[in-house]
Write a structure and sequence with these properties.
It is elongated and about 100 Å long. By secondary structure, the chain is α+β, with helices and mostly antiparallel strands. The longest helix is centred in the first third of the chain and has 43 residues. It folds into 2 domains: 258 residues, Alpha-Beta Complex (Penicillin-binding protein 2a (Domain 2)); 363 residues, Beta-lactamase.
Length: 689
């Protein structure tokens, strides 16, 4: 009995001790952990924000390492919600900010999908599905009807944000947009709100002088152009639209990321775009930064080295402009034809790789001031924004005659020694009243006499190719033209027109009724590069390079290689790609090669290349175009003749005669073959930078 009573008392004491230890333990936890945390927050009042850090975009360089597009430092203005609304009269502070931004013409970032002015209407079609989703979340968080009208929404937001009635509509609408952006950060996972991007030093100084709580500054980079040339191919970046977001979101792009909108910026977007980082910033209620660190560090984009040679690009653009302006001022000969010259293009290509060394279009514009000058550019004559090298399609004229030569000799329709007597007027279609003429007859009432194919190419005798074209037939000419890449994609990374070859099917597509019927006259016109033949200068340069390669057609490309952001690693080395192979027999190859050499030595190109140090193969063209005024002018060349490295195509709208363009080609060759300008056009193995 006594033993049982002792055990019960001992157990009671132990339970009491355990209970006391439990109470003390809980209290100790409260004092040391929970209450300590509350005190810390109460004493310091800190807030932690997460800011997306935009990764630097990769640089774009020419083949020699010259930076064409790089980056410069930029300042962005952030707004911190808790700090701003811990201050007195945050609305008035926002209005002061807005007024300063207006004074300095700064664009406030605004994703509220409502027009800026009355009558208010929704603009959800201008935003991505993600931004519209955030807007719907915003409405849902407030239990607002998703079908609320835009005017009702603005009125409700004005009431919710206590916007004074004395404010103007513009002031109210701007502050509402800022308040909306800040509210979004409380109901979504969006990072800190950037009020303004890329603010310049004077505006930044003025903004900081306002001393508004919650305003902070962060740095990023923006694109900077290091050349005035190549505007039509380099392109520019800009904010994504809704359609672009639907595509780029698969690559984890942020919704407000800038992406390539045109040109090579767009073509190589995925290489140039880096991976954004995330930065955590802890600040006090007065805006003082307590601590800052990367949660995820940004990774810069890769650098893209182009095949373009900046020196050749500069010469191509400058010489093309000089030639066209000279034509406009002086014209050609006593007739002064060519004074109505409009635009033009030059394309220079590496024969053995398909790499484009220069791609010029005139008139051009300045990319560095493109947005500021945009309206003025639209009003300029001859459409400077039009990329004539890649988008314009032209009748080639006599530079097409090598196609007819290959079609005839490759298929043994005629032999290399086959001759034709030029009678000036081609009378095969006299019974239907069609009298095609040789150009020499038209201009001088003379003929070339008896010629073989080489001589016909050298002096560009239309009469000869009328007859050879008739004998060969449209099917063989069209097949050969296609294998030369005419009317086909060149494979270039930028948008391009493919044009069309002259044949019965194309004519039927282009015309209706009696006009769609294919006649014998269409065939002989096609044989000299007229009728419905329409090709781009890029296609014509690829064709010229294919002639130089004896039928091997390479994919045209602007890309040399891709390097890592620090230039230490070769990410991708672009190798030549053969698109197709046209087997050219000895007779056909020797005929056009010798004919083009003769054109350079003593024929239509001799005025420039008759005594040139390097043997070239060249051909001029004069093309009727049906739009009135002077004829178009075309010129193709490859060099050296026996071991070709470089191909050039020049085209000028209403340039009168192809022979006028030889000096442009000569200036390009002078630079290319100079000691400092000669290029390694065959990529070496294992290049690493």
């Amino acid at each position: 009995m006594n033993q049982h009573r002792f055990s019960f008392r001992a157990m009671s004491v132990l339970l009491l001790i355990a209970l006391m230890l439990g109470v003390f333990g809980v209290r100790l936890f409260q004092l040391q952990v929970r209450e300590a945390t509350v005190r810390t927050d109460s004493d310091v009042d800190t807030f932690t924000y997460y800011t997306r850090v935009t990764a630097a975009r990769g640089e774009i360089l020419d083949r020699n390492g010259n930076i064409l597009i790089g980056n410069r430092a930029a300042y962005n203005v952030l707004l911190f919600y808790d700090v701003l609304f811990s201050s007195d009269d945050p609305n008035e502070n926002l209005r002061r900010l807005m007024q300063l931004c207006s004074e300095y013409d700064l664009e406030i970032i605004d994703h509220l999908p409502v027009t800026r002015e009355k009558p208010y209407e929704y603009t959800t079609d201008q935003y991505s599905s993600a931004w519209n989703g955030y807007f719907n979340t915003f409405l849902s968080e407030r239990d607002w009807d998703p079908d609320i009208s835009a005017p009702q929404l603005i009125r409700r937001l004005r009431d919710r944000y206590n916007i004074p009635d004395t404010w103007t509509e513009e002031e109210a609408r701007t502050v509402i947009s800022i308040r909306y952006e800040l509210d979004l950060r409380h109901c979504t996972n969006l990072p800190t709100y950037e009020l303004v991007n890329d603010i310049d030093a004077p505006a930044l100084a003025a903004l900081m002088e306002l001393n508004i709580p919650g305003v902070n500054v962060t740095t990023s980079t923006v694109r900077e152009y290091h050349t005035d040339y190549a505007a039509h191919i380099l392109g520019y970046v800009g904010k994504m639209d809704a359609e672009q977001w639907e595509y780029y979101k698969q690559y984890d792009y942020s919704m407000d990321a800038e992406v390539g909108q045109t040109g090579l910026e767009k073509a190589f977007e995925l290489q140039l775009h880096g991976t954004d980082g995330l930065r955590a910033t802890t600040i006090a209620v007065d805006g003082t930064v307590i601590e800052e660190h990367y949660v995820t560090e940004p990774v810069a984009g890769n650098n893209v080295e182009l095949s373009i040679d900046l020196d050749l690009q500069r010469i191509s653009e400058d010489e093309l402009e000089r030639a066209i302006l000279d034509l406009r001022e002086n014209g050609i000969g006593s007739s002064q034809s060519g004074m109505d010259a409009e635009g033009g293009a030059v394309v220079v290509m590496s024969v053995k790789t398909g790499q484009v060394l220069a791609c010029a279009s005139y008139p051009t514009y300045d990319l560095s001031t493109f947005f500021e000058d945009y309206n003025d550019i639209l009003e300029e004559d001859y459409d400077p924004l039009f990329n004539r090298a890649l988008i314009a399609t032209y009748p080639p004229g006599s530079i097409f005659k090598m196609v007819t030569t290959v079609a005839a000799l490759n298929n043994e329709i005629v032999e290399p020694g086959f001759t034709v007597v030029d009678e000036g007027i081609y009378t095969r279609f006299a019974d239907v009243g069609y009298w095609p003429r040789c150009m020499l007859w038209t201009t001088q009432h003379a003929t070339h006499g008896r010629l073989d194919v080489r001589q016909a190419l050298a002096v560009s005798c239309n009469y000869y190719f009328y007859e050879v074209g008739w004998l060969t037939g449209i099917d063989l000419i069209d097949e050969t033209s296609k294998l030369f890449g005419l009317g086909e994609s060149t494979g270039i990374e930028l948008d391009e027109a493919t044009g069309h070859r002259s044949n019965p099917e194309v004519k039927d597509e282009l015309y209706q009724g009696d006009y769609s019927v294919w006649y014998g006259g269409d065939l002989v016109a096609t044989a000299i590069g007229q009728s419905e033949n329409r090709f781009t200068p890029m296609q014509l340069c690829s064709y010229t390079a294919t002639l130089a390669n004896r039928g091997t057609r390479y994919k045209a490309t602007f890309l040399s290689r891709v390097l890592s952001s620090d230039y230490e690693e070769l990410v991708y080395d672009n190798q030549p790609i053969i698109l197709n192979q046209l087997e050219i027999n000895d007779a056909a190859y020797n005929a056009y090669k010798e004919g083009m050499e003769m054109a350079a030595d003593s024929g239509t190109c001799a005025g420039v290349f008759g005594n040139y140090d390097i043997q070239v193969c060249a051909k001029t063209g004069t093309a009727e175009h049906g739009s009135g005024g002077s004829d178009n002018a075309s010129y193709v060349l490859y060099a050296p003749a026996d071991n070709p490295e470089i191909a050039i195509t020049i085209y000028v709208e209403k340039g009168s005669q192809g022979g006028n363009l030889g000096n442009i080609a000569k200036a390009i060759l002078d630079k290319y073959f100079s000691e400092t300008g000669s290029l390694d056009t065959v990529p070496s193995e294992n290049r690493t930078g």
